[in-house]
Amino acid sequence: MTAPKQNTVLIVDDDGDVREALSEFLKGNGFRVYCAENGKAALDEIRKQRQPPKVILLDLAMPVMDGYAFLNRAREDRKIKNVPVIVITGNEPKGAPGATMVLTKPIRPERVLSLIQHLVQSAPR
């Protein structure tokens, strides 16, 4: 099952290899993807876009603005407060308030794809 091109995913991770691998995998499965290397860059990128992403993949440990600070800002931002956020972290998180779900690295791309497809299909139109 592929996703319509208007289904956009934002990948927020300071590891360029992770961003590239997830981006290529999701693009290959029909998603439009854009990336940011930290929370501040993600908020800046979201402001540039006409529509918010359908799903955000978010690392927690990043420089400049970490995932926790991003989640706090996102849940206060009218444009993205209801966008599902899948946290993908290398450490066992002590909780990620505001996240839809938390996955621990290493992740299986097929699992991430399945979760994203489910979230997109169940989102209000």
Question: How are the SSEs ordered, and which strands pair?
Answer:
Elements: E1 8-12, H1 16-28, E2 32-36, H2 39-48, E3 55-58, H3 67-74, E4 85-89, E5 101-104, H4 109-122
Parallel strand pairs: 1-2, 1-3, 3-4, 4-5
Helix pairs in contact: 2-3
Question: How would you sum up this structure, described in words?
Answer:
With 125 residues, the chain is an alpha/beta fold. It has one domain: Rossmann fold (3-Layer(aba) Sandwich), CATH 3.40.50.2300. Helices cover 36% and strands 18% of the residues. It has 4 helices and 5 strands. It has a 5-stranded parallel β-sheet with strand order 2-1-3-4-5. The two termini are 19 Å apart.
Give the helix tally: 4
Helix content: 25-40%
What integer value in Å does the Rg equal? 13 Å
**Beta fraction of the residues?**
15-25%
> What is the strand tally?
5
CATH homology group: Response regulator
CATH level-1 class: Alpha Beta
Give the second-level CATH assignment, the architecture.
Answer: 3-Layer(aba) Sandwich
Major β-sheet strand ordering: 2-1-3-4-5
- What's the mean pLDDT score? 88
Total number of distinct structural domains: 1
Largest sheet: 5 strands, parallel
What is the CATH T-level topology? Rossmann fold
Q: Give the terminus-to-terminus CA distance.
A: 19 Å
Helix/sheet category? alpha/beta
The backbone outline, from C-alpha atoms, is globular
